[in-house]
Amino acid sequence: MDAEIADRHGFSLRYQDGMAVLIVSPRREGQRQIYVDDVMARMKLLGIPSVPAKRIREIVDRGSGIPEKLVEWPAGKRLCAKVEIWVSEDGMEAVAKTEEAKSGGAGIDARMMDEALKSAGVVRGVDEAAMRVLLEGKTGGRSIVIARGKEKVPGSMETMKCLFITDRGKPWKQLDGGQIDLKELNYIQNRKVGDLLAHIVKAIPSKNGFDVYGRVIEAEPITPGRLFSAGYGVSETDEGLVANIDGNVRLLQNSIVMERSIQIENVDYSVGNIDFDGSVTITGKVADGFSVRASGDLYIRKTVSRAYLETERNLIIRGGLVGGDGESCHVGGNLFTGFLENSTVRVGGDLFVTEAILHSNIEVDGNVYLNRGRGEIIGGVAIVGGSISCRHIGGLRAGLTRIYVGCQPKQLKTFRIQGVELKALQEKMENLSKQIKYLRSKRNPDLQEIFGLTSLITQHRKSLRNKALEFKKTQRSLKAPPETILAVRGGINSDTIISFALDEYHLAGKNLEYVIFKRENGQTIVQKLRHGEDVTLPEAPGHEG
Description:
Number of helices: 7
Largest sheet: 23 strands, mixed
Number of domains: 5
Number of strands: 39
Mean pLDDT: 87
């Protein structure tokens, strides 16, 4: 409006610092004559107090183009542009809302903006580009962010990122329903000489932030990074840790190590028995009567029959295991397989079977999982330190199926050995007593021999007391942990014998379906399972896996 009047009449009136000012531009050729009456009429319209005509004439004649004071005009402030600033609750953003000046009022200037910012307490993070937009009056009445704080940047110390799977507690891929995909197990991760195993991530310095009030937002203390040392077969470079040999990469405590790893097509007369310090992959078959021993992980792609397998860590058999005479396998870690048949198996960790355990004797320190497929345990003896989850147990004409849960195999074996020794000692003492009785029945008994046998009985009696105490101590320790469970998602045959450690539960000739066995208050209880109900097995205490 003021610009239009200035263009049309050659002058403008406005409020400035409590005064009414008159601005007359230098006269251009052809421009209309400025009359004092026009100025006074405009002053009356805006409510500006009157001034002598002479004062107005002097300003018009000068045509200086700069504001020249006419008279005090406090009321003119209401015509001026307005600026309001709001600060967000977190103090990280300030927003300016403007109201354009009315005719005769002063527009937004730098001093007005400074005062508005100061009034709102905004002292830091002012956006100069936004400030220019406001001063030029280009906001169109919209709010505009005039200042922003700066977020803190947490730092970190130098660290390393491993380029292989380090968490081998559960590296397997699960299919629908919890079945384990034996094709996707990642226990053996082969690398070649020169492969980068872990790269260095440089340290990032922490930076404090601030809000628009100027308050410092302190960054958290620098988080320590994890640096791995170079173990066997690994060297350190500026980039990170690199393999020096071909083999299987592992994280051993805080060191990255390479262990020897071999891949064999078949174990037969062409290669002989395998005893390897490292991990072994067998892509073909293991012939009957041969043995494979590995200090690392052992992976076999086909079914193994009547061979002996031993590994200090994990055994993965894509097919299954058919046993022969004697022990079939001894596993320090976890065993994954499709099925077990007529096998004698010792597992230090957990046992995962996708189909069935048939007429086998298994000793497992951890848990047993048969969650998909047939999911059966039929015949044989299962001694399990943890819990069992399966679909079926026992079967008609399948013979006795004996299940121990919450019973560490080594403890049960010790208990049985102590029992045998105790019984043998008792029998030995009974035989000695019979000998003494016989000698005394003779007409001329050999007193020296009787004395010797009596002394021997005294020694055995002392030994018997000690062994009896050890036996009872072991017996008391053989208690299933209270969280131990046996979950059967199908049926359990009445011929099955179930024990929680040494506490036997009798099915009393009943076939049960969809049940879970638990221990409560020293008793075995049976609860119904809903179809499709998920059961999570507790981690077995003290197993080696």
